[in-house]
Amino acid sequence: MFYVILGIAFCIVPLLAYRKGLKDGLAIKQNEPITPLIKNPVKAVKEYKEEKEISQKDKEKLEELEEWLGYGGDIK
Fold first, then answer.
1. How high is the pLDDT of residue 75?
2. Which one-letter DSSP state was computed for residue 33?
3. Residue 21, CB-side half-sphere exposure with 13 Å CA sphere
4. Which domain of life is it from (predicted)?
């Protein structure tokens, strides 16, 4: 079992890193942006909060639209 873990750590991981390096090198050569492996946690939280705020605003707009479309002429 120990040798299996060592095999994974010393063979597969470097090959994956090599592939990522090749992709990044080709992207730089073609003037394309490099995609990070791990998303920046600060940016991810900010995006999540912005999406949550947008969805909250959308819900409010939908409720207002339902009130307008559901109006039957009755005064409450």
1. 67
2. P
3. 6
4. Bacteria
pTM score of the predicted model: 0.47
Contact 34, 27 (CB under 8 A): yes
Among 54, 34, 53, 50, smallest CA distance to 42 is for 50
pLDDT along the chain (76 residues), means of 10: 85 89 93 86 87 78 82 67
Q: Structural domain boundaries of the chain?
A: 1-36, 38-71
Instruction: Give the CA angle between residues 29, 33, 34 to the nearest 5°.
Output: 85
CA distance 55 to 42: 20
Helices and strands, number each (H, E), in the chain? 3, 0
Question: Which tokens is 69 given?
Answer: 């479309």
